[in-house]
Every structure is written in structure tokens, then in C-alpha cells.
Design goal:
The protein contains four helices and five strands. With 143 residues, the protein is an alpha+beta fold. The longest helix has 15 residues. It is globular and about 40 Å long. The chain starts with 8 loop residues before the first strand and ends with a helix.
Length: 143
């Protein structure tokens, strides 16, 4: 078993060629939650939306030479007209089941918070299903 201390994680911004991998992670997470039928996005649609700047993502790569992608956080910027400032909306956080419990999700969320801070965004917003106890536990630990 791999321990959190021995996992070498490299975070990087996603690129267009990563979209098929990201879609696979999203589908894998939806399957694990029994919600695959709710995923209606296609690879072509994701590529089109990524190129248009509709969303962005950070990848968590593990292993030598970033050999495997263990997780992803998808996000986009939203504008708050009343405050005249942007905030980051975390749309999805997916960590492959075999890499869970090693701090990868935490690192992705922390990186997203840092990105929001460096972008002078108001903060990070997100929603979580009430029965997603692992995610709720993670977010509570992060404050």
C-alpha cells in the first residue's frame, strides 16, 4: 500500500490534449457514485468548451515523469456584479479510487484556493451532495 508520505504529486494546469483523460475521470467518478446516467457531456463538447474558455482544470499527476493522472479539479470563474469581482467555482473534484486517502484531493483543492487568491478572486465556491460523506469530510478538514 502506498502511503501519503511516499506519493510524489505534481499539479499542473490542464491542456486541450488532456480533455479525454478528464472526461474519463469524470465518468469514473460518476460510475462510483451510481450517477453515470447524469453525465451527458461528450469529448467533442468538452474540447469545444475548453477552447472557448468555459472551464479550466488542474491535474494531479503521480509517479515518475507524471506517469499517471490520479485526480482532477474542474473549475471556472464567475463574475459577481454586486461586488465587481470574480470568484472561482469548483465544478468537480475527482480522484481515482486507487489514489484516494493519500491527500491528492486536499492538494487539488488547496491549489485551487491558491489560484483564486493569486487571481484576486473573492474565493472558491462549490456544492456537494449531502450523502457524499468523504467529500464533506475533506471540506470540513480544509475549513
Amino acid at each position: 500500500m502506498t502511503s501519503a508520505a511516499s506519493v510524489d504529486v505534481r499539479l499542473r494546469k490542464g491542456q486541450l490534449q488532456d480533455v479525454p483523460l478528464v472526461l474519463g475521470l469524470v465518468l469514473e467518478a460518476a460510475r462510483a457514485e451510481g450517477a453515470e446516467e447524469h453525465v451527458s457531456v461528450s469529448e467533442d463538447g468538452m474540447c469545444r468548451d475548453f477552447q472557448a474558455g468555459a472551464y479550466r482544470f488542474l491535474l494531479a499527476a503521480v509517479g515518475e515523469n507524471e506517469g499517471e493522472v490520479a485526480g482532477v479539479v474542474l473549475y471556472y470563474f464567475l463574475w459577481d456584479a454586486c461586488r465587481c469581482a470574480a470568484y472561482v467555482y469548483m465544478d468537480d473534484l475527482c480522484v481515482r479510487e486507487c489514489w484516494r486517502g493519500l491527500g491528492i484531493g486536499r492538494q487539488l483543492v488547496q491549489a485551487l484556493c491558491e489560484l483564486a487568491s493569486h487571481s484576486q478572486a473573492l474565493g472558491v465556491d462549490f456544492q456537494v451532495l449531502p450523502d457524499n460523506m468523504p467529500a464533506i469530510g475533506l471540506y470540513k478538514k480544509l475549513g
